[in-house]
Amino acid sequence: MPTQSIIDSGQCSVITNNSYDTRGSLTRTQLKAATPTEVLAWYYNSSDSTWNPLKTWLAHQFEMQMCGIRRMGFWDWIMSGMKDRSALWKPRSVARGPGLIEPFILGLQDSVLNDESWTISAGWRCAGSGNSPFSDTGTTYTASSTGPLDGSPAINTGDRVIRVSPKYTLSVSSDYFPVGYKIVIQSLTSGGTTQTTVYRILDTAPEAVTTPTYVDLLLKAETDNNAAAWFNAAPSSGVVRLLPPNVMDVEAYCRNRINVNTKKEVPFWVQTTRQARRVSSEYEKVRAQLLRDNGWYAKFVDLDEAERNRQDEVKYRREMVNALLFQEPISSNQTLALWKNLEQVTSINSGITVDPGTGGQLMAYRANLVGVLPQLRACGQALDYQNTALNPRTWVETYIYPLYRARKSANRPVDSIDVYTDSDTAAQAETAFIDWYKDRYGADAQIQIDAKITTGAMEEFGFYWRSFKVPTKPAGVVINFIVNEAFDDLKDALGSTYEQAGRYLWTVDFGGSVYPAMVASNHKVHTVGELSDLSKIDATFACVMENPTERVSMNSTTLTMIVECPLQSRVDYGFSQISYTP
Fold first, then answer.
1. How far apart are CA 207 and CA 173, in angstroms?
2. What are the domain boundaries of the chain?
3. Which of 33, 152, 322, 449 is the Cys-Cys partner for 13 at CB 3.0 to 4.6 Å?
């Protein structure tokens, strides 16, 4: 059990959680050091008297803080959202063999349901008997030939057929359009006149394939305003929205609406990383003598073990940040269907002289944890601008607005959206937003600029930001451009030749729906060459009084990167600059 004396020191504090209760805005958070009671809670589950699987990882973090690790703000922020998912990573029984651990955990990923808007790709007139006050123009729809509508009920003259597809990602079904409901079609004439036309649904049918992409709707107009400028008598393009049915209490009508389970089970691939150091007893003897007798060696050559570990940890944290952001699947076999074709990891057959007799057994399959960028790219939430300019108004209204709506669907406030980037790109964003304000507000631009731009910082962790209130939609939302040396280093390392390849806008819900998840951690220290151990194997060593030894210290971490809802995050990258264009 950890004692209070170990963890009260400010230098040894470990940043583990954040206080912001929305989808993870750094600008309103308070990173805090742990109290003794909190630390004990991480290690020990008092309800069932079990030790937390994060114990080894946490202990290593304490040790590194005692070694004087320079604070790495972005690492601290990412790891503040670390969650324990060890319960999802269990061995599967294998006949006549050890338990096999799959290279992934299955987690629920949330989708955003947006079934309100559908786009029209085509429209037809209807041949047959019947009367209509409207001009029946255009190509004729033939039942069971032009499309999936089969003519029952009858397709009459004056009726219309339109083909619609969801504007946003959605599994297509005709059940979204119950017969008897009405739709409003919003469209434009060739001359630019806005049209809003209401039709009633007579029949629906989806594309006749296993996974349909469209639905054909048989419609009837319910208005005699056919001559009005806003009426579209032959719709073949536009956007469709549903209206409620017109049903009196004395009529028989009870129809279930389609419901969608927005949860899906997806694999999050786990990877085990290791940090190791070997220290020889003979090296320690020589080093001790040099430190006594050689002042130059002691001051300019030697590194104590704490400093070596500190440097190793800094490198490891940088590498892990790179992996959590960028790492790709290990191969095309890293899928639920093909993962058993991944490289097999087996137990060690034998050492130089010892064969334990348990070698060669299949223990696991090797996979890579998949970083944030590849996960978002796979879901259409990452855009490479290919060295073209990024217009902040287009970016906000086209990409940030849907992200805002997706986050809002989680029923949490989203009036502040964080964007992580480098200092140069943030400065360009500031200039571009000011140009946007000037174009939007004209003579009152300076007043608006003073009111809509604020600054902030979390200097201890190296975060600085400027916040800009969006002048259009989403109304009332503030965009925080947050800079950190991690992103400056990323861009600067590429130099001027590949500069655009280092420009990123990470509008990622770190600390909210995007976080690393720990499934296991381990720590082992072995002493190689101990006489008490060697003498049990070879009697010769029972007659030896001293023998060189090596101390091998190893830490391993098995973790994954979780993106719970891809539509709540996005990455824009590869742009030449940020500049406002009206």
1. 9
2. 4-84+271-329+515-562, 118-261, 389-513+566-573
3. 33
